[in-house]
Amino acid sequence: MADTHQTRRWLISGRVQGVFFRESTRREAEPRGIAGHAVNLPDGRVEVLARGDAGALDELERWLHDGPPMAKVEHVEPAAAEQHAIESGRFRTG
Length: 94
Description:
- By secondary structure, this protein is α+β, with helices and mostly antiparallel strands.
- It has a single domain (about 5-85), classed as Alpha-Beta Plaits (2-Layer Sandwich).
- Helices cover about 20% and strands about 40% of the residues.
- It has 2 helices and 5 strands; from the N terminus they run βαββαββ.
- It has helices at about 20-30, 55-65; strands at about 5-15, 35-40, 45-55, 70-80, 90-94.
- The chain has a 5-stranded mixed sheet with strand order 4-1-3-2-5.
- A hairpin with a 5-residue loop joins strand 2 and strand 3.
- It starts with a strand and ends with a strand.
- The model has no long low-confidence stretch (mean pLDDT about 90).
């Protein structure tokens, strides 16, 4: 059986640190069966790296454009998703 999972990476800018963005992303990802991470970057952006079904990743990407209520997302930039080690079934924040 073919693996239909994809890996995608986004860099989210705006008011996305200190507004529950990473934890909210985890809460959106896990029920969709998405593994990966949401981490703060030193420049104020959040990196989201995700592996899952293409449809689930599309849903997560749509959510990233708004984020949680206190966030003010200015830009969601797709970025190269090089082969990263992602623990199957786990989404972490950091």
